[in-house]
Amino acid sequence: MPLSLPAQLRPQQQHIARIATTYATHRPIIQRALTTGFVLYVLSTTYQSLFSRPGVRSPSRGNGRVRAEQNPDGKRPARVAVDAVFYQRLSHILRIVIPGIRSKEALLLFMHSSLLIFRTVISLYVAALDGKIVASLVRAQPVPFLLNILKWLLVAIPATWTNSWLSYVQNKLALAYRTRLTKEILGEYLGDDRHNDKVFYKLANLDDRIKNPDQMITHDIQRFSNHLAAIYSNLAKPVLDVILYNYQLSRNVGAEGLILLTVLVQSSAALLKALTPSFGAYAAMSAQLSGSLRHTHSRLVEFSEEVAFFGGEETEKMLLEREYASSIKHENMILGKRWWHGCVEEGIIKWVWGSFGLCICAIPVFFKLPGVHSFDLGTRTEGFVTNRRLLLSSSDALGRVMYSYKDLSELAGYTARVSLLLETMAEVRKGKFDKALVSSASTEDNAKILKGRGEVVESEEIHFENVPIVTPNGDVLIRSLSFYVKTGQHLLIVGPNGCGKSSLFRILGGLWPVYGGIVRKPPASQFILIPQRPYLCLGTLRDQVIYPHNKTDMEARGVTDADLIAVLSLVQMEHIVEREGGWDASREWRETLSGGDQQKIAWARLFYHKPKYAVLDEATSLVPVEMEALMMQHAGELGITLLTVSHRPSLWKYHSMILQYDGQGGYVFTKLDAERRLALQQEKETLEAKLLEVPKMKVRLQELRAASEGGLR
């Protein structure tokens, strides 16, 4: 029995020897097959990890869209992940920032790609040169050593040039993305040649999805553009490096070692990916909380006078501290997650993968590879140093691939914010709003009104037929309003606060939707609004009078500065030109001019444009009655039909029709007899004054009675 065991093993050893001989004979073909499989595996794994990662979509109100802005209301924020939704959004934005293959952005992207490839080629050359330098040291060959050092210094020239150009082109690419995207969004936000739907107004007043569009248009677009420009080099370059470095490494240590290294690395990478937090959702929430804090600061600046009068400093400070505390709490939470994730990430990528690599580099030293001849100490040292340099570069590239998923997650957060802005503007333009409604909107009658849609017909005159007046939050002020205004027939609108006077003007201006009936009106360009506090733009004194025209538009109409002086003289403001330093003087006019002067400037703007209709909302409340009379009379002489909201009896005589709300959903539309109404008003005020004296007269009467009774005693 003991003698039979070697006899049984001898055929097996011969069989293994035949397999080894066959493998050694066909090793070059097997090596190419393994290397090709490795390249395909890297590409497919990268694609699947980036494009097929499952994401969790949270249902949102309305159409099921993932919403990134929810936390201020106490709701759980929607998950932002690198999933199919992210790539769908990103592809839509990419069509905006890279409109065509011949665009400036495509050219910059091509330059960026060429520089990335060139830098990889330089890195491969440097790895081989590094091995030759060490080999010449081991062999004690000074001349080859100095020649290699000279080559090292020479290769530094294109290397440094390439790195500087890469940084420059990447920054230029980010600016190009931002410029293209900002131009597109501002076209949607403020209108362009394709459409002008007052989206900026409707977004702020008719929809609740976006609380701070200013922050999204400035900060979020900038961060998105920077991340988008960086993600290409952070992803494409490492993938290319992994393929090229490992291909060269497989030629040095064998494809078998490369496959073993891949198995070990992928196993640890799967563990790392499972431990990676959702940094995309954190980035989106950070941007939202930052925008909320900024919005709170801007409100304090806007209403500083009211806050100062009320002494609300402590309350405002509490609000700001609450917003800041929420932001800092979130940032501290992110820092904590980044800390432990960084520990795990560096431990796996730098140390674990490094140990794997050193073992692979040692294969040619400790094992004789088929088809590889024996070398001297210098050659083995050169091979080890070169392989180690390649391995470190490959490990760094693979680490950057892993890091890129974190960058991609943050890009997903900013993509969600930018996409939310684009999607919301598109829906608002189509008349689809998402607004919190008052409780009364859920009643059967009001809900029926809110579901309806009216008809808007362009006409020379104004005519409302059974039109409900509904606020954006669903409050039905008037169920059915009917009235008409003919050209030259001035309309006075009166009623208590909150009854729907200003709401009527917003429908005329095309700002609010029509929920029923028929509205016949001229286009919005035929209206000019003068509110109690007129809007004064940033710009010169001239700009305040001709807004929204510029100087070129003014000259195209044949209007000169002398004509503007004549317009200002109509409101007794011609002296302001000399006082402020000429037409080209720039100021913060809202602070420079008094309330009365601001109203006069607004009237001068009206006389410059000469529209068909003027909407006056307490537009003369801060000017003297004499000045009011001059402005009203001149507006009539210019043929401007006035729609006036005012409580001043002095304005009644300039109007022929009146629309009076009762504040309970009712109204009266009739002709206005100004003299009779004024007489009744005066009689009413006289009686009210007398009634106010009655309590005093009663008290006096009691005093007289008491005095009289005391005298009789």
Could you walk me through the main structural features you see in this protein, from its secondary elements to its overall organization?
- This protein is an alpha/beta fold and 713 residues long.
- The chain folds into two domains: 12-52 and 98-429, ABC transporter transmembrane region fold; 452-672, P-loop containing nucleotide triphosphate hydrolases (Rossmann fold), CATH 3.40.50.
- Helix content is 65%, strand content 8%.
- The strands form three sheets. Strands 6-9-10-4-11-12 form a six-stranded mixed beta sheet, sandwiched between helices. It has a four-stranded mixed beta sheet with strand order 1-5-2-3. A two-stranded antiparallel sheet has the order 7-8.
- The protein starts with a helix and ends with a helix.
- Keywords: ATP-binding, Membrane, Nucleotide-binding, Transmembrane, Transmembrane helix, Transport.
